Amino acid sequence: KTMQLNEVRQAFIDFFVSKQHKHVESSSLIPHNDPTLLFTNAGMNQFKDTFLGLEKRDYSRAVTSQKCVRAGGKHNDLDNVGYTARHHTFFEMLGNFSFGDYFKQDALKFAWEFLTSDAWLALPKDRLYVTVYHTDDEAYDIWHKEIGLAPERIIRIGDNKGAPYASDNFWTMGDTGPCGPCSEIFYDYGDHMEGGLPGTPEEDGDRYVEVWNCVFMQFNRQKDGTLEPLPKPSVDTGMGLERISSIMQGKFGNYEVDLFTNLMDAAAEVIGVQSTYEPSFKVIADHIRAVSFLIADGVRPSNEGRGYVLRRIIRRAVRHGNKLGAQGNFFYRLVPALVREMGAAYPQLSDKQAEIESVILKEEEQFAKTLAQGLRLLSGELEVLKDGDVLSGEAVFKLYDTYGFPVDLTADIARERGIGIDEAGFDAHMEEQRARARDAGKFDVDYTAAIKVDTPTEFVGYSLANLESQIV
Ligand code: ATP
Ligand code: MG
Ligand code: MG
Ligand code: MG
Asked: Which of 164, 269, 371, 432 has the most crowded CB, counting CB atoms within 10 A?
């Protein structure tokens, strides 16, 4: 069976509506009333208070396709983008939810039915593997005895404490909040791809791809780490729309689905080169989505918090465009292609198209002023280093401070040559600068008083202009 991305999204919603779930709209990427969260990073975020029993809804089952951004905070995939076949900064998470309604049994049976029954996705069962939390015999038995999976397809996974792999079957939204053991479903692309089963050191390859996570929400994690039981056991699931779409299109990665090939083609046209699957194209196609959706939800480039993440993503995309040979500002010109692809599902994108373009263009113009100089400095620094070396914190700081290079942009460029960066050294320079700014700020406040009280000679040479230049 072949399905386009928009069809997969619709099928998921239809399936769960047929199972008495209420279709709820995606919430904003800016979490409401949740200071613990930078951006919405999962479908369950908008239901957090419902899981906690603080908010009542007039339904106990819901289905959503939720806009998510994982660039910063607990779930941060920014560095993965362009280098794995399955990570985006912005993606859509399909999810079904039970608020004290059904629990493990129905959650797993629904998931299996949607993925394998002929009426829905009709995936071959022998391509699927599942994981369960290592002590969760209940989930194991449902998979084995009720759904009929052979034991070699069910893998027990722990908390990832000290394990030589990243898998973790205890899902947490952040350092605090709703959490619980989970069971995940993996798709096997076949032995022509590299990678190992989850729970092995080779799991990071692209052969076995995690598509769906079913979380059995049972606890509220407190600041001190203790797990307090939720009022009612609940269910929260999340499936990456781009990942399942790539499987449904017989493609070996998210960037080969219709939506992304169209965006990469648009990028090639705007830049004036031939489209390929090299990382820079993937980064640009990924980032135009994240940036446009963030702007549509009200984020603006700035030097802190959410705005700084947005700035970093734009600058990273611009740099990759330059690497491909872009002349002048190009990134904002990808917005129309994105609106063509996603405007029907997200009308806010079409409504705000002009605004999105102008915010991006302005940021491109600002960055363009220092980009070339910064890149020259950086190549000079990198030239004298070799594979495996580390770029000094001082250089990283200078690029940040003088040329507007976010640290991860510098790291991204260095990585292309196998060079790391001295993050601790950078942090030290940063802290020094903050201290200077604080002192300068204090001085500024007491400016006249200080001149009167202290000996004037100490202040010779201090003009207001160079005072300001110290305040960052
Ligand atoms: P991975 O291990 O691949 O990084 P995850 O375990 O961090 O994924 P979950 O928090 O379990 O992901 O999220 C639920 C689902 O959302 C995943 O199974 C996957 O299909 C999808 N997903 C997670 N992160 C991304 C991403 N950065 N880009 C695209 N899809 C994602
Ligand atoms: Mg992850
Ligand atoms: Mg995972
Ligand atoms: Mg997961």
From this structure: 371
